């Protein structure tokens, strides 16, 4: 196979637990990959990552990708045809006029912004989630934090990395919609709400209009700058990568997940399960009223999306599987991580459909959808329950989807939003036919998995980079994905099983009734 680097696109994504780099060829097929693990920390009661770790991770992922490319194809990675940056959405990165970071990166996982979300939601007449950038900025104003008087630029993690690679303070519309509400007509920041924010913020000490602090909004396919020499050196410590590659607008992991699952058309949706879990449903009409369980965001092309975002996803599942693997090793049996997952998830298929009197909460962090300020992972069972591996694991999997179900009920029942198809991606779906089946029961919609997700969000942003340079004149993102990227995609679709649906409904009744137990755990376990 001959690799033409000028026709290749590079995508990098800074996820919650892993930084990935993917190089795709002219057919959008991955030809080399690299990665680096990293973790957030809970410092001064806030979830954060050091930005130095972001660059160390990006360089490590790039070096691994370069080595993979050379080993597989004998090609030195000294240039690319296009490049894109993705990262976890939302959060707060604030810089002064000299480009210096004012406070440590505050991630999407923080829930300390309650007063800000309440005031802004009431004033704007739309839901402003805890993790949005504007909520973090306004909360800092309410808390009279010293740094707010020196803020000159606020952006997301993807926007920050893109800025350092290109010198351009821009952001993709999908990621922008996690900073501030987007006008459905203009695909820019909502001007009415910008003015309302300035009215609120002025008396609190923010003299600069908010629009001057935010990155410029761009849609998919728009030119977002070129890789500078300094930017190339930041990516490639070896110095081989040349400058000049065009970059697509930086996007959040929600937007790249939509691309990676071909879920950008109306009445389609996707579920991404990782450290967090969220559903994105592309709307064909406006919602009747605001709901605190639903975020209004956009696709990378600017089309309206209802998002159900849960702060807690598969981390607690991973902890239990790790524990079972540790037990196996203590018993003298060596098992790989993949084998441990297959055994634990496979057992769940034989578990009692309603969870058999077991209840689990996967809350490592606070969960705004259920008014839980902090996380306390919890497992409780009734005295008459049967503690079997299959039922226990089914309960843990149900728990991973329970909060998502709360938001989906609002979307599907209260708003009567029709969904034709849901696509699922994330490591939890790698064990075939288990998490996919239970998710179908939870959302009561057919769920598809398959090769559409490629290498996840890093692949999704690589596809957006390719769209920047390869699309036909006037070709929409949805058409490009359908006719070019996913024309030959293979999917495996599971319809909701009636027994699973009834079982999940019964589990949800028990789970909802135990929410006060979860809140009590937060209050009493310090």
TrEMBL record:
The keyword Thylakoid is assigned to this record: no
Provide a GO biological process annotation: D-xylose metabolic process
| Pfam families assigned to the protein according to its UniProt record, in alphabetical order | FGGY_C (PF02782), FGGY_N (PF00370)
Spell out the InterPro entries in the cross-references: ATPase_NBD (IPR043129), FGGY_C (IPR018485), FGGY_Carb_Kinase (IPR050406), FGGY_N (IPR018484)
Q: Gene3D superfamilies, from UniProt?
A: 3.30.420.40
GO molecular function annotations of the record: kinase activity
What keywords were assigned to this record?
Carbohydrate metabolism, Kinase, Transferase, Xylose metabolism
Residues forming the Carbohydrate kinase FGGY C-terminal domain are 270-467
Its domain of life reads Bacteria
Q: Which residues form the signal peptide?
A: none
Sequence ranges assigned to domain Carbohydrate kinase FGGY N-terminal in this UniProt record: 9-233
Under the heading SUPFAM superfamilies, the entry gives: Actin-like ATPase domain (SSF53067)
Q: Which family does it belong to?
A: Belongs to the FGGY kinase family.
Identify this protein by name: Sugar (Pentulose or hexulose) kinase
